[in-house]
Design goal:
The protein is an alpha+beta fold. Helix content is 24%, strand content 35%. The strands form three sheets. Strands 3-4-5 form a three-stranded mixed sheet, with helices on one face. It has a two-stranded antiparallel ribbon with strand order 1-2. Strand 1 and strand 2 form a beta hairpin.
Length: 101
């Protein structure tokens, strides 16, 4: 999203199809808002537009994740009626660590 020739924010995501489960879902993997535009509806607009995009591709569900200390993101997702908080385990081949989100 541009505002006065400055990038106000961005969203990066994809959708995943699981043919055996006959399920398709969107996954918002990264959402960023420039600090100058925080709390002005930019994040809300980006999530809304991404959700429209994945729904137009036939997705029934949109997944998001964030760090557990990212209170701004958690507040945003709660206000957008995201629910069913779950813990996930992520593995990385570049680091020998286990991250619980």
């Amino acid at each position: 999203v541009y505002f006065c020739r400055q990038i106000a924010g961005f969203a990066l995501g994809t959708y995943i199809e699981k043919p055996l489960q006959k399920k398709k879902f969107g996954h918002l993997t990264w959402l960023g808002v420039h600090p100058d535009f925080a709390r002005q509806g930019v994040g809300r607009h980006l999530v809304s537009e991404f959700e429209k995009l994945v729904r137009s591709e036939g997705c029934q569900q949109l997944l998001v994740d964030t760090e557990e200390d990212n209170t701004a993101a958690i507040s945003l997702f709660n206000s957008l009626n995201f629910s069913h908080k779950e813990k996930h385990v992520y593995f990385s081949t570049s680091e020998l660590s286990l991250l619980l989100v």
